[in-house]
Amino acid sequence: MGERPSRHEIAPGAVHLPGWLPMSDQVRLGAAFEEWAGGPVPARAPSLPGGGRMSVETVCLGWHWLPYRYTRTADDVNGRRVLPFPDWLGGLARAAVHSAHGAQAAERYRPDAALVNRYREGASMGMHQDKEEQTADPVVSFSVGDSCVFRFGNAEGRGRPYTDVRLDSGDAFVFGGPSRFAHHGVPKLFPRTAPHGCGLVEGRLNITVRVVGAAG
Ligand code: MD3
Ligand code: FE
To answer: What is the set of domains in the chain, with CATH numbers?
Structure first.
């Protein structure tokens, strides 16, 4: 008897799928990251308009994201076009939308971009909204490697009320409907908690699949 996968709707449209990714897919994502990060546009910590720099390193597929817009070429890195968004990753994200929101939502889900974030020890992500996309379609997140605290807030501001959720290697999370424009962040990493066999010895990878839409 297979175990029934758990599905936690932490807010309307925000569905946590713990352990959704089999170990083989976690390994595939970790290996793919190494390829993507060595591709035409290397992973880098994005520079912020205020002069600072993010502590996570990011590589983009399909569309390049820089604070705070999407472009086809990585003009803040080396000007090259980013790698195409892979079909297999779109299929994985669509399957997660199916688990979270059902067959109809999955049917019309057409992702065209992914942002891949690598967290080394000490990295974090401040509270923010993702609103550069031209669509309100769901964002799908996959976690591999070390566990973290994910903070899910509200659409009005960066502060309370928020809910803290621990994300572990293999978790998927789908943010759709009213949760799509909620503030969120990653305040804390738990070093050396990556499970054996996940493909990462240290650090955390997060892959977010998105529908940026035409024009970007
Ligand atoms: C809720 N990444 O890349 S994943 C990001 O773990 C980002 O690297 C975090 O926030 C990470 O923008 C959190 C969960 C997530 C991603 C995108 C969202 C939650 C979201 C977009 C809208 C609402
Ligand atoms: Fe985000």
So the answer is: 8-210 (2.60.120.590)
